[in-house]
Specification:
Layout lengths: L1 H16 L5 H4 L28 H10 L1 H7 L3 H17 L3 H4 L2 H10 L15 H16 L10 H5 L2 H14 L9 H19 L3 H6 L1 H7 L7 E5 L9 H5 L20 H6 L5 E5 L2 E2 L11
Antiparallel strand pairs: 1-2, 2-3
Helix pairs in contact: 3-5, 3-8, 7-11, 8-13, 10-11
The structure holds iron/sulfur cluster (2 copies).
C-alpha cells in the first residue's frame, strides 16, 4: 500500500515538475514566473517541460554570481535557495529523494530490469560530498572571469539528469544547436550512458555516489523533525530491511543514516518484527504492530 502511494506521489511530482506541455510548439523552455521557484528534487531548469528551478542549479548560480550580486546589492536572492534547502532538510531530511525526485524515480524503475545485482563498497557513499564541495561550492565560487562571474560546474560538466532532461531534448527541438555539439556534449552523454547502465545493476547509483542535492539533505537526517527509529530490542538482525532497501542502507546498524531517504519500505514491507518506526518532533507516530516474535 505504502509502495503504491509512493509511486503515485513520485509520478505526480515528476509530472508537476514538468508540466509545461507547450514546449513542442514553442520549441523553447518555459520562462514564466514559476521558474523562480525551486522544486525539491533534481529536475533540470533547462528541461523544456520544467516548470520550476532545480535547487542544485540555483545554488551553483548563486555562488557563481555572488560577487557581482553583492556589488549590486542582490545577495538576498541566494539566501532564498539556502532557505528552501534548509527548511526542507530540517523538516524531513532526505525524504524528497524517495518521494519527489524525478531522477530518483527513474533509477528505481530502471533497476527493475532483471539482472545480476551488485552492491557498492560502503565508502563510495562519501564521494557525493566531494562532488558537493568541489563542483557545487568551491569551483563555482572561486573560478571566476574578469567580471567576477563563475559557472555552474556540476550542471555543465557532470549532471546526467540535465543531459537527459535538457541537453538531448533541446537538441531535438532546436536543430541549429547541433552545430555546437563538441567534446563537452559527448562527454556528458557518456556520463549519462554510464549511469543508465549502472542503474540496472546497482541500487540508485547516482543518489548514493554522486548526487550533491542528496548530500545536502543527508546532513539533516539525524536532526530533522521527521526521524526514523530503530528498536534494537525487537530486531533479530534478519537483514531483510537491507535486502529490500532502495539505497542499500543497513538499517539494523542505526536509524537515520546519511543514505536513508525515508521511503518507509523497510518499516512497511520488510521488517516482520516491528523493529522500525518513525517519529515526528520526538513523538512516536507509527510504531508498527509486532507481527512475529523475535524469540
Ligand atoms: S528487518 Fe527488522 S528485524 Fe530484520 S534486521 Fe531489519 S530492523 Fe532488524
Ligand atoms: S532504510 Fe528504510 S526508510 Fe531508509 S531508505 Fe532504506 S528502506 Fe527506505
Amino acid at each position: 500500500m505504502m509502495f503504491v502511494l509512493r509511486r503515485w506521489i513520485q509520478t505526480a511530482a515528476t509530472a508537476l515538475s514538468n508540466a509545461y506541455l507547450l514546449f513542442p510548439f514553442t520549441r523553447n523552455i518555459y520562462q514564466g514566473k514559476l521558474k523562480s521557484v525551486c522544486v525539491p528534487g533534481l529536475n533540470c531548469y533547462s528541461c523544456p517541460a520544467a516548470t520550476g528551478a532545480c535547487p542544485l542549479g540555483s545554488l551553483q548560480t548563486m555562488l557563481a554570481t555572488v560577487r557581482p550580486s553583492a556589488k549590486a546589492g542582490n545577495a538576498h536572492i541566494g539566501l532564498y535557495v539556502l532557505g528552501i534547502l534548509g527548511i526542507i532538510g530540517s523538516l524531513v531530511g532526505r525524504m524528497p529523494c524517495a518521494w519527489l525526485c524525478p531522477f530518483g524515480l527513474l533509477q528505481e524503475l530502471i533497476h527493475k530490469i532483471p539482472s545480476r545485482k551488485i552492491e557498492i563498497p560502503y565508502w563510495m557513499i562519501y564521494i557525493k560530498y566531494a562532488f558537493l564541495a568541489f563542483f557545487v561550492v568551491l569551483l563555482p565560487l572561486l573560478v571566476v572571469d574578469g567580471f567576477g562571474y563563475g559557472t555552474t560546474w556540476f550542471c555543465k560538466y557532470v549532471c546526467p539528469a540535465g543531459t537527459l532532461e535538457a541537453g538531448i531534448p533541446m537538441l531535438i527541438l532546436q536543430p541549429q544547436l547541433r552545430e555546437l555539439v563538441g567534446w563537452l556534449y559527448a562527454s556528458k552523454v557518456g556520463i549519462l550512458l554510464i549511469f543508465l547502465t549502472l542503474m540496472v545493476f546497482i541500487r540508485r547509483p547516482f543518489c548514493r555516489i554522486v548526487c550533491p542535492l542528496g548530500a545536502i539533505y543527508s546532513l539533516f537526517n539525524k536532526v530533522s523533525v521527521f526521524r526514523m527509529v530503530h528498536h534494537p530490542d525487537k530486531c533479530v538482525l534478519c537483514k531483510e530491511c537491507y535486502n529490500h532497501c532502495p539505497m542499500g542502507v543497513r538499517f539494523y546498524e542505526g536509524a537515520n543514516q546519511p543514505d536513508c531517504i525515508r521511503c518507509l519500505k523497510c518499516m512497511q514491507e520488510s521488517c516482520k518484527f516491528g523493529a522500525i518506526s518513525y517519529e515526528i518532533a520526538g513523538l512516536p507516530v507509527a510504531l508498527k504492530k509486532k507481527t512475529t516474535s523475535p524469540l
